[in-house]
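At this stage, I put together one protein's amino acid sequence and its backbone structure tokens, which the following lines show:
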Amino acid sequence: MERWKTEYHNIQVPKEVREKMEEAVKRAQESKKKAKKRRTIRYLQSAAAVIAIVLILPNTSQTVAAAMQQIPLLGNFFKVVTVREYQVEEDRYQADVKVPEVVPESTDTIPEETKEEAQKSAEAINFDIQKVTDELIEEFKSTMEEFEDGYGDIYIDSKVLVDNEKWFSLDLVLYQGAGSGYERHRHYTIDKTTGKRATLSDFYEENYIETISEEVKTQMRQRMAEDENVVYWVDNKDIPEWNFKSIAEDQDFYVNSDGKVVICFNEYEVAPGYMGCVEFVMDN
């Protein structure tokens, strides 16, 4: 038990959600929900069981990156290539990492101004992806070196959520486990008609933070009223400091195939851990 506590407190979880995690874990007693979480973790661990420690260093050459491409040409504008892989399979530590990169396709049908904006958007997205994945990998390596008798696993991958005439949306999946697990997502959306990365201010007036926040609260209350197993931190009189108040200025979101804004929250941000990562579709 003492070893478990030590490993648990070594999980790289944001400080602002640690207290919520601890309380949520205590409350998540329903066997069905625990079983779902265990199945998720087992899946992620089995996905990492590929080979013994292998590291493919980042490739800066677009020619090499194209040769490593995991996803075929998406539409006629963007493609996603895997530019780095990191695999670990040991008794106590597992890693299954595939770092993506967004590459704009150049065609004669796309205006030069749009091409330039698309290149800028892709570079900004790739920089963010590289930064967050590097941090996660380095944390994992440090934990392996410092705690030889510990446990840990990481999983990084990506998925194209939307690629139609108007929108390109990418989901970066990040998972850390060590006794308990923590999953988070980062989303990136580009308007293919302009090449620019979408922001929430593109869809709303100046008071969009308040507008979206109130809609999120409304949907939280509606979902809880319809299903007693659904719990969000809203209108909680016992622990009011946990209640969701407002989205962040840099709130994570993406645009779905219908052109709707989807507000995204990571585990433990607005609900107990068994709820996982949650999303709310806006009527913009």
Notes: The mean pLDDT is 80. The chain is about 35% helix and 25% strand. Helices lie at 2-9, 15-27, 31-48, 62-67, 112-146, 208-226. The first strand starts at residue 54 and ends at 56.
